[in-house]
Design a protein that fits this description.
Blueprint (H helix, E strand, L loop, with lengths): L3 H11 L6 E5 H7 L1 H8 L5 E5 L5 H7 L11
Parallel strand pairs: 1-2
């Protein structure tokens, strides 16, 4: 949870000539959104799909659907 945007940055730097596509949930994105500024600074151009799944889906699965502290505001 929360590693995919940083991983995207790593793959972009390793192979900038390739197309990179990322699907990321809203809560995970909030953990690593600062990586986007580094991606922009280096002029890299990934395709990022930001999915509003209303929070930490994996945590809801583990701790129960009613664990409201795992919700993220729209």
């Amino acid at each position: 949870m929360g590693y995919t945007v940083g991983s995207l940055l790593g793959t972009l730097l390793a192979a900038p000539e390739r197309r990179h596509v990322l699907f990321v949930g809203d809560a995970s994105f909030q953990l690593t959104a600062q990586e986007v500024s580094t991606i922009l600074r280096h002029g890299l151009k990934p395709v990022i799909f930001l999915i509003n799944n209303r929070g930490y889906t994996i945590e809801h699965t583990i701790l129960g659907r009613d664990a409201r502290y795992n919700d993220v505001a729209d």
